Amino acid sequence: MAAVDINRATTGVSLPASVSGEIWGSVVEQSAVMQAARQINLPGSGASIDVVTGEPTAGWVTEADEKPVSRGTLSSKVMTPYTLAVIEPFSNQFRRDKNALYNELARRLPAALSRKFDSTVYGVGSVPGSNFDNLSTAPTLTVDATGTFGDSAAVLNAIAAAGYQLTGWVVSPSLHGLLITAVDSLGRQFFTSDTNQQTVGSMFGAPVYVTRGTMPTGAGATNDKIGFAGDWQNAAVYGTVEGVQISISDQATLNDGGTPLNLWQRNMFAVRAEIEVGFRVRDVNAFISINDGTAD
User: Fold this and answer.
1) Strand 225-230 vs strand 236-240: parallel, antiparallel, or unpaired?
2) Is the dihedral of CA 88, 94, 95, 100 positive or negative?
3) Average pLDDT of the chain, as a whole number
4) Reduced to 3 states, what is the DSSP secondary structure of residue 106?
């Protein structure tokens, strides 16, 4: 059987037509970056994105005086879609039980795609191309257990001092745990409404997104990254050509880490999921990279 697009399949593994859209929705839901940043539709050939680099300035005038003339300044960046993909083989038992197959697709594939996208944005590994930005050069501050509230406020102030507005916190599970347990001198939690609350929904009016993506680790005795805060809505944008594209085959031979895996010979089939996605930031100084304050 040749590769079949699940969305239009009439033979082989027949899944609901909405499966691709539901998996794409789950990718966005599991990606902290995609939740925090603004999305645009991206043509397959890429697009030029206008970037505001300076604002017009108003001035006071007296009666009959000339009004000041001022202009904003613009630049542009090219956003190129890059392909992010994963192939996962399954045994034919899943072919018999379509519900089990669907559940596995919905559980595994979005997590794999969203983790890789987020980690690349954080600066883990290399970017897929020159027109894909990451936050590896963002200014750095420390948030630790010795002054969590003051450290967090310093992050807010640094973003404001750079001329931007804090619109979101992307935090690792370890930073999220630190924020939950941060208390004042009377034992009252800073960032949760009561002592029974187990999540931090927002800080200083900006939503908190807990990420599953891996963050950069420091080399030697340097600190590990545990979060990124910044003006995600105005200074970061991601674009997709279309949603997740899914195809399936039971005839292919996969290159599994250098080992050939013949699906037909093993009574298996494989599902390929891919997205074309790009990411750009207006100014890396609109973000603060948060360290844990602890030597490795």
Assistant:
1) unpaired
2) negative
3) 82
4) helix
